[in-house]
Amino acid sequence: MWKKITIVCVLLMACVQAKAQFEEGTFFVNTSLTGLNLSHSKYEGTNFGLNVEGGAFVVDNLSVLINFKGEYVENGMDETALGVGARYYLSNCGVYGGLGFAYKHLSNSVNRKNIVCMTPELGYAFFLNGTVTIEPAVYYDLSFMNCSEYSKLGFKIGFGFYF
Fold first, then answer.
1. How far apart are CA 139 and CA 106, in angstroms?
2. Which of 44, 55, 109, 117 could disulfide-pair with 141, CB 3.0 to 4.6 Å?
3. What is the CATH number of domain 2-162?
């Protein structure tokens, strides 16, 4: 019983602390490691990537962002992407849902492809202090071209900085 009460109290404190960070006019920058993907793509091998995104809250709980992603894929096609999107933070406690669009350039020694993807994501901003977060997220890159070959489900974890 005491464990449950303690968990509820900790979650409530996290919600109160996070409230001020999701207000209109707040800026944020997030750097994430990506590449822990579950993929439908026949081109994927072991991969490692870096995602950098930044944005601003245009109204309370709603942010717009831009992002850049670079990913190395062993025995496959490397990826460079530039995108835009939005996030909505639920109940001022760090849970967020996002939707974006990305223009991707895929390449290896033989092939080059340019594709457009829709990228929904679901994540959580866990505050370490008033301005720094750890942000795990699950995302899906839905390719508009050859969906079965280039779409992928992935996981990323990053650090967010709120100003």
1. 18
2. 117
3. 2.40.160.20
- Alpha carbon separation from 98 to 41, 46, 47, 124 (Å, rounded): 23, 26, 23, 11
Per the CB < 8 A criterion, the answer to whether 65 and 85 are in contact is yes
Q: How confident is the model at residue 143 (pLDDT cuts 50, 70, 90)?
A: very high
39: nearest Cα among 158, 149, 156: 149
Confidence check: pLDDT of 159 > 50: yes
- Distance (Å, rounded) from C-alpha 56 to C-alpha 22? 9
Is the pLDDT confidence value at 4 over 70?
no
Decide if 31 contacts 158 (C-beta within 8 A). Answer: yes
Answer yes or no: are the C-beta atoms of 48 and 69 closer than 8 Å. no
pLDDT tens across 47-60, in order? 778 999 999 999 99
pTM: 0.77
Q: Which residues, listed in sequence order, are joined to residue 32 by a DSSP beta bridge?
A: 51, 158
The single-letter code of the amino acid at 157 is I
